[in-house]
Amino acid sequence: MLAGTVSCPDWVIAQEAEKRMKTIFQLADELGIAKDEIIPYGYYMAKVDYQKLYSRIKNNNNGKYIVVTAVTPTPFGEGKSTTTIGLTQGFGKRGKKVSCAIRQPSAGPLMNVKGSAAGGGLSQCIPRTEFSLGFTGDINAVMNAHNLAMVALTARMFHESNYSDEILCKKGLKRLDIDPKRVQMGWVIDFCAQALRKVIIGIGGKKDGIPMESRFDIATSSELMAILSLVKDLKDLRERIGKIVVAYSKSGNPITTEDLEVAGAMTAFMVSAINPNLIQTIEGQPVFVHAAPFANIAIGQSSIIADRIGLKLSEYHITESGFGADIGFEKFWNIKCRISGLKPDAAVIVVTLRALKYHGADRDAPKIIPGNPLPEEYVLKNFKWLEKGLENLFHHVKIVRKAGINPVVCVNKFQIDDIDELEFVKKTCKEVGIPAAVADHYEKGGEGALELVDIIIDVCRNKSQFKFLYDINLPHISKIELIAREIYGADSIEFSPLALEKLKNINSNTDFSDFSICMAKTHLSLSDNPELRGVPKGWQLFIRDILVFTGAKLIVPVVGQINLMPGTASDPNFRRIDIDLKSGKIIGI
Amino acid sequence: MLAGTVSCPDWVIAQEAEKRMKTIFQLADELGIAKDEIIPYGYYMAKVDYQKLYSRIKNNNNGKYIVVTAVTPTPFGEGKSTTTIGLTQGFGKRGKKVSCAIRQPSAGPLMNVKGSAAGGGLSQCIPRTEFSLGFTGDINAVMNAHNLAMVALTARMFHESNYSDEILCKKGLKRLDIDPKRVQMGWVIDFCAQALRKVIIGIGGKKDGIPMESRFDIATSSELMAILSLVKDLKDLRERIGKIVVAYSKSGNPITTEDLEVAGAMTAFMVSAINPNLIQTIEGQPVFVHAAPFANIAIGQSSIIADRIGLKLSEYHITESGFGADIGFEKFWNIKCRISGLKPDAAVIVVTLRALKYHGADRDAPKIIPGNPLPEEYVLKNFKWLEKGLENLFHHVKIVRKAGINPVVCVNKFQIDDIDELEFVKKTCKEVGIPAAVADHYEKGGEGALELVDIIIDVCRNKSQFKFLYDINLPHISKIELIAREIYGADSIEFSPLALEKLKNINSNTDFSDFSICMAKTHLSLSDNPELRGVPKGWQLFIRDILVFTGAKLIVPVVGQINLMPGTASDPNFRRIDIDLKSGKIIGI
Predict the structure, then answer these.
(1) A contacts of B46 (beta carbons < 8 Å)
(2) How many CB atoms lie within 10 A of CB A180?
(3) What's A249's domain CATH number?
(4) What range defines the domain where residue B404 resides?
(5) pTM of the entire structure?
(6) Domain boundary among A268, A286, A306
(7) pLDDT, tens digit, for every residue of A511-543?
């Protein structure tokens, strides 16, 4: 997102473009999807009946698979969604059959500081407001399914405390003897709510549940959302949901959603969510939307299902993985691609002048604070900072190359940017053998991304030598070490006593041996400390806690001070959102 | 709902009927709604663009307005939704242009004991599962809008505790100085979660909010849901939302959503929810669905907007108000009709043999426990209990007559019911001058409701002498007394010290003087004690607490032990809900 750099707000541009939108039926038809393979939500959005569609197209050849990642972003973001959309529009301009897959925005950042994830300027997807706010209900489905597990857990604990084994037996229930000190799951809500990070529940009277500590995370970080990103089909979804460990019994046995007899009902909430959503760019190319953001605290990938469909229907399919290549791309590479079996042909690394200057700045340079304006130091011409900042970019290029994927650098132009500086970045990349283009899709739409498109088309002619960072059957500690050293550049790892104890239990459980690692780490630094810019050296990765997502098959080390529930800032976006009573339209999103 | 009385589960009947559903386009067209006046959600459900539609049809004559209410129900419910749908089908069979308005099921009872509210047997609305589970997202919209207010409140309290007045001023914020002991609003979730009734939040570290007591209510009891039922248009919605008092400052000033600058964003979540939903009965008549159930702890009415549209498009429009005439109908009458200005032509009072026997039973007769089978005492022939139980029915008839509306008794037949007993009830009603019919729509669909339909058509020829129970400008205590004595049959009222103190404050606030009374009372008895059957005599209504919904303009006395967050029972429905992996369909709803 590039908020604040144009005279016309994004939502105004979007509303203008929406007057000329294709109907969803035309959009689907042009992409090769039949009318009875979509479930319209109004005349401009739809869910795609993936099972019906995929069974028809599964023998098509796959198109080229392009993933969009970025350097270590500033708190403003560097326009990765904008680039994904702009690139899609660019391929469209070149007459290529193209689609992209992005993630449904969470109401957390939308109402807080970051705003929507619909792109910006002349590279946006529409209908913007409907997409940004609730959309077709997938995040709500995840939230409700997740919280239903907690309702089942807490109600069961309560009833077991009231009833004898005999009465439980009459009701067809076996005592699970859940340990209130070993509940793994929390509740979720799709907002940034620091006040709910740690709560005590069940403190009413004797009919009001069992007192215990609990927590709320943001809904997009739910294990169910990770499952939605990774799932193959409905059967896979049902099985994975049933394997989610909600808590442990007092004797140490895992209590799953299946034990609570709630896995079927949870899946029922998600039957519709498994179908990817379809909308369009403001230039009329198809945009799949599926799963959710937050590659820092969650998997943060668009879904495998959306990519599978896009690849079968398009010559070029562009997918987005959140934040920098250290977290979003690393998860795309070692988790998502491992499960999907798909091999990307190119990785676009988005970089901005401001991010490079931020990473290359002197030690006493001002901080960038979300909600405050960008300090002018990061706008003024400064080749010294820029050049130094390239270290961060080159580190991300190295990460992409470790995957055997061909990188392409996209220098994402802002209106205020200096041409010489832009060209300097591009030239320096080329000098060290990295294909690069300056892209101006924010201001010019697809037209502004043509140089980038042409380079990508060229790069895609070379086959990738795709390989994983780690063998899935390595000990977990080795997988974590590989990510810490090879990707983040850490010297060593320190575990908290809690994390160490959990790691021992995890290691001894052979059920977990083929689980992937899904780090929860700040996106604002390659390190675990959001203050460290550039390419931090001589630091130790601190693992505070480890979660195990038994349904998603993920080990989730929680590093540094990262929190699965973000906080709402003092000047949040919701202050500026309202309704235009004349048109009935929402303004400010 | 009449679960358990047929060999074939409701959802199987529904799935069969869904094979022959009209498309939403055909359904809308037959009702006189244009294609561009609906927003399809798939091919069989839609939202109706009420503003566009209403502005076109507002000069049409209104059809006859029929409200469906009931005797004091058993915990199983007496088939009010089934009767509403069956009646709609019956009018259809008679060749009348008909529509009905029901409420969107809450996931609370759906996943707990009561199940869906789609009707049952051969009187259902379809698509049943989609309708029952999430539908077009209105309850989620209410939940998110409501919780956003709490996010705004708790984040504001947190930031005010960290920042000086000067820093707040720089951010354009004025210190609100919110009193953590006088927060009025809680959080909401659309489940029955006793463990969340009373919670402590903000107990993490120094970045994790302000410690304070809080609570979660069921989403359908949110003030926002009351507003959705009562609202006239988007402007009215925006204004009402802005008036919601979330908390009080330490100096006693009300803090509204407008003060928190969150009212616009809350409204943004509800822009789509204000449009009523359209589906069909299994015999193809139009069913509007809007707002939510829980007439005990909430207003529990289908919306004014849905009724306004239905009346303009149909000869007969049937609307549903929840539970018995003492609560659902009383709120319909004195709150909803006062705001809408609409005057009902007839009120159908649904009664069942089992409910009458339950109310007329001896003191030592078994209880009816949700989730357990119905004790056979209430099935076996028993004229003594039946006759005694009629007192309850006659009390509800009296309530309806106080409104000046003509009552019609619907003896809702179950397959196991005894014909002599059914005829006895009908005959006894007629003897005392109450039009009555035995209706068998559960087993026979619209055909089974024809006798009832004909009586209603006849009754609607006589003009109602509609009048309110209380003048809106009476002192609140007088309004409450009128409801307690005239409707519930209480001898007197007792206030808790808390309620008394709140009442004083409310009385002294002239802003509240035209607020209606929206009692929160058990639906299982005319009294405030769910154990007291029939027509309890010589009892005192206990008012425990009083809430003020400043946006909905409602004073909400909380009586007896009623709780705004129901609990999940030990044998909840979610145990029996799952996915049929072959068809991809949800089973058990």
Answers:
(1) none
(2) 18
(3) 3.30.1510.10
(4) 14-135+273-459
(5) 0.96
(6) A268
(7) 999 999 999 999 999 999 999 999 999 999 999
